[in-house]
Amino acid sequence: MHFDDAITAALRNVAEHGDTDIFTFPFENLLFRDRLSDASKLIKSIHSKPDHWLSVYPPETMRSLTQVGYAGFRWATLIDPFWNAYYLSLVLSIADKIEAVRVPEVDNTVFSYRFQWQDVEAKIFKDSTWIDFRRQCLALSDVYPVVVQTDISDFYPRIYHHRIENALQRLPGVGDQPNRLMDLLKQFSQNVSYGLPVGGPASRILAELSLDGVDKLLVRRGVRFCRYADDYAIFCADKAEAYRTLVFLSEKLANEGLVLQKKKTRILSAQEFRETAQLLDPAETASALATEEQKLLSISLRFDPYSPTAEADYEELKGAIQEIDIIGILGREIAKTTIDSAVAKQAVQAILVLAPAQKLQAVSMLLDGDNVMTLAPVFVTVMRVVREVYAGSATDERIRIDEALCKLWTEQSPLLSVEVNLSYYIRAMAGDQTQQKEEILIKIFEESANPMIRRLVILAMAKWSCHYWLSDAKTKYGAMSVFERRAFIMASYFLGDEGKHWRGHVKGSWSEAELLIRDWFSDRFQANKSVPL
Fold first, then answer.
1. In this structure, which of 56, 281, 422, 460 has its CB flanked by the most CB atoms within 10 Å?
2. Average pLDDT in the chain
3. With pLDDT > 90 as the criterion, what percentage of the chain qualifies?
């Protein structure tokens, strides 16, 4: 893909689909949608003078703690959206060459992140999914009596940069893109020689390239396996072959600086594998004998509003969900000591297509203090759904939701000590304005050093037009991070003439990105005064 086309593709993809399913949606992505041409010019400027940009406007990143299960945590990195768009542009410009050297898709071996630009929907990958991977695994378990199930431990943070660099340099006709990419990765990792930013499509493509050598070693050895990202299923004639193959895979991954997860590595009989497969064949789960949970997992909850049959699709989805007792599933999960995260997440998402009264009943159940703790592994999903249900609720119903949300803070829910959880909590809180919610957000702002958290508070206070707080925060602008400053540029429009005077005074210190944000939000403010939160 020509680099100019790659820039446009990157900006459109991020604007339409976001870059990561970990963090809240950055408002810069909306700018990319509304000002595609201007954003493209800025990315081209970065590409034409990378050394200048890296010296005067280096990528600012935010490392935040995110929850994995009940007691597991990992660091995730949010990249400055402009630099992230440049990163994705570089990768997309050579993504077809990366795809061309991978184990062919027709082999039904490697299923994850097969590159194919889909211009109409601005999608980067083919529609090959985890479901396809699991279906192929189940089919092969009918042929092979023994299955090895395993995955790579801490995959993205452990990927060596020099391995990626070598693989990129071997690609034909890539010019100096590998050098530019390695300079960026060095910046993102703060000069550490390993690790990819977690979650975005650019990193996913590079991660697939990093495993291509191991894939081919397995293929050339005659190993029958399926891989999706860092998950492997290996199919063998007997346990002796399974053990030898597991040793071989461990050795080859070790050469890449990677190790398998001990707790998730198992040698199973084919029958055991089929019984423990978390994602069953939809044809099987649709049977009358399937449990409510199995039926739920067989339904896709992703609704495409741009589909030519969107209205019919939505009604079909609602009909399928209404035949399942979502409230009952949630009740059974909450009653457990440890939830099934896949079932709980799907059930929480399904709340959005329930009848209004059922939605409110479900949200009330989710926000109960004890229940929230039980649902800790899917807390982010809970906050997303609460926010959407709140938006469509009547005033008295919103008051009850607000009271439950505030109670999480006043009772010091430990879940709010996880930064990514807290970010989604702030967005759920940013509905109707109340004095108690103002006090909570001010407290969060004062206690947090995380720029992501602080900028969400700035946006919420702007949404509520809290002049007294914004006017005071203005005096601390010089000490703010890049992420906070961008939010405050927008917030300043809610200060009237005071904000206009302030913008005129400080605009000489603004970067090109900040000037672009000012111009974009000025138009947005005049049109509808909405805050992108």
1. 460
2. 90
3. 69
Identity at 177, one-letter amino acid code: Q
CA distance 249 to 251: 5
CA dist 411 and 405 (Å) reads 10
3-state SS, residue 235: strand
* Strand (E) or helix (H) holding 481: none
Longest dimension (CA), the chain: 77
Are the CB atoms for 352 and 387 separated by under 8 Å? no
Closest CA to 403 of 444, 434, 359: 434
3-state DSSP assignment of residue 366? helix
- In sequence order, which residues have a C-beta less than 8 Å from that of residue 348 and are 6 or more positions away? 330, 366, 375, 378, 381, 382, 385
pLDDT digits (tens, 9 = 90+) for 396-433: 999 999 999 999 999 999 999 999 999 999 999 999 99
Q: How far apart are CA 77 and CA 156, in angstroms?
A: 11
**CA pair distance 4, 430, nearest whole angstrom:** 38
Report which residue type is found at 103.
Answer: V
Tens of pLDDT, residues 281-296: 444 444 444 577 777 7
Q: What is the pTM of this model?
A: 0.89
Nearest Cα to Cα of residue 355 among 326, 378, 331: 326
- Please state, in angstroms and rounded to a whole number, the distance separating the CA atoms of residues 272 and 282: 19
Average pLDDT for 429-453: 96
Q: What are phi and psi of 99, to 5 degrees?
A: -60, -35
DSSP state letters, 7-58: HHHHHHHHHHH-S-SSS---THHHHHHHTHHHHHHHHHHHHHSHHHHHHHSP
- Encode pLDDT of 305-326 as tens digits: 545 565 666 666 667 777 788 8
Are 428 and 386 contacting, i.e. CB atoms less than 8 angstroms apart? yes
One-letter amino acid of 419: E
DSSP H or E segment with residue 103: none
| 131: confidence class by pLDDT, cuts 50, 70, 90 | confident
- SS3 state of residue 437: helix
Phi/psi class of residue 173: alpha, beta or left (left: φ > 0; alpha: ψ in -120 to 50)? left
For residue 498, count other CB atoms closer than 10 A to its CB: 14
* Cα–Cα distance measured from residue 251 to residue 217, given in angstroms and rounded to the nearest whole number: 11
Q: For residue 16, give the nearest of 4, 33, 31, 28 by alpha carbon.
A: 33
Chain centroid, CA 236 distance in Å: 35
216-246 pLDDT per residue, tens: 999 999 999 999 999 999 999 999 999 999 9
Rounded distance, CA 170 to CA 213, Å? 12
Report in angstroms the alpha-carbon separations of 279 from 173, 336, 343, 461, 522. 41, 20, 10, 43, 48
